[in-house]
Amino acid sequence: MRITEIFCSLQGEGRDAGALSTFVRLTGCPLRCSYCDTTYAFHGGGWQSLDDILASCDDNRAPYVCVTGGEPLAQPNTARLVERLCDNGYQVSVETAGALDIRPIDTRASRVVDIKTPDSGEASRNLSSNIAALTDNDQLKFVLCSRTDYEWARDMVVGLELPPGCPVWFSPAAGCLDPGQLGDWMVADRVPARLQLQLHKQLWGDKPGR
């Protein structure tokens, strides 16, 4: 697999926020979202075997592993990597843009599906069948850049029938939408979603590998 980086840090988002985690960042992404903060993972990286990746995770001694990118589902061996991580006892999450089919990914992992909003420039790439494939172990995320994005996501969430254990996260895009403003909107509209701030950015800013 082509790997941009493997590092140990604190999970900054989602259900496992604050947990000591190994991040396996795969190289390459077919999308070009306007707010992307990992453009350095579009190209480059180095080839590693599944055994080498597992060994790096073992060396980090963290109970959680986050497989991310780029877009991890764009690499054909991602499903096998996730399966082996789960078999080895890790709590695994997979962060995906939602444009590729999540069904091949082991449901023991939490598949974090990022639904693309209009201001991302990639809303047309959303794969609607992924919504029906979500389980209680999965998570749904919307990164919001504006009031337009918020209203679009709000109206979509209201009409969704999700498994009861699948949380919905509204996350303000850094530098685009004030978190307090988003919080005010969510309270006013009684949105069935949770506000998510990126813990790692609050701690370390935009440093790669954190």
Describe this protein's structure:
- With 210 residues, this protein is α/β, with parallel strands linked by helices.
- The chain has a single domain, classed as Aldolase class I (TIM Barrel, Alpha-Beta Barrel).
- It has six helices and nine strands; from the N terminus they run βββαβαββαβαβαβα.
- It has a nine-stranded mixed β-sheet, with helices on one face.
- The longest helix is centred in the last third of the chain and has 12 residues.
- The protein is globular, with a radius of gyration of 16 Å.
- The two termini are 21 Å apart.
Radius of gyration: 16 Å
- The CATH architecture classification is Alpha-Beta Barrel
The major pleated sheet works out as: 9 strands, mixed
**Coarse shape:** globular
Estimate the mean pLDDT confidence: 95
**Total number of beta strands:** 9
The number of helices is: 6
**Poorly predicted segments:** none
Report the CATH superfamily: Aldolase class I
Helix fraction, binned, reads 25-40%
Counting helices, strands and paired strands, the structural category is: alpha/beta
Span between termini: 21 Å
Q: What keyword list fits this structure?
A:
single chain; 210 residues; alpha/beta; TIM Barrel; 9-stranded mixed beta sheet; 9 strands; globular
Short description:
The protein is of the alpha/beta class. It has 6 helices and 9 strands, in the order E-E-E-H-E-H-E-E-H-E-H-E-H-E-H. The chain has one domain: Alpha-Beta Barrel (TIM Barrel).
